[in-house]
Amino acid sequence: MSNALIALFFAGGAGAWIYAKFSKSTGNNTKSSSIAAVASALFIFVLFYFMLGLFIKK
User: Fold this and answer.
1) Residue 11: what pLDDT?
2) Structural element, H or E, at residue 24
3) Mean pLDDT of 1-15
4) N or C: which end of the chain has fewer CB within 10 A?
């Protein structure tokens, strides 16, 4: 499995978890929860992709 796919799965799961937490804490404010989840998922994807690149050499 490629590093990009692993990072995508991890970022998707983390983004869904962050969305659920923010949605619950902001009283179901969809717009702010979505923005926070997407921004953090993009950051997590990039971070995880480069970390996997350091540890897994192909």
Assistant:
1) 98
2) helix 3-25
3) 95
4) C
DSSP state of 58: -
Question: For the chain, which residues make up each domain, given as ranges?
Answer: 3-55
| Backbone dihedral angles phi then psi of residue 5, each to the nearest 5 degrees | -70, -40
**Neighbour tally for 17: CB within 10 Å:** 13
Rounded-to-integer distance, Cα 15 and Cα 45, Å: 10
Neighbours of 41 (CB within 10 A): 21
19-53 tens-digit pLDDT: 999 999 988 899 999 999 999 999 999 999 999 99
Q: Is the pLDDT of residue 57 over 80?
A: no
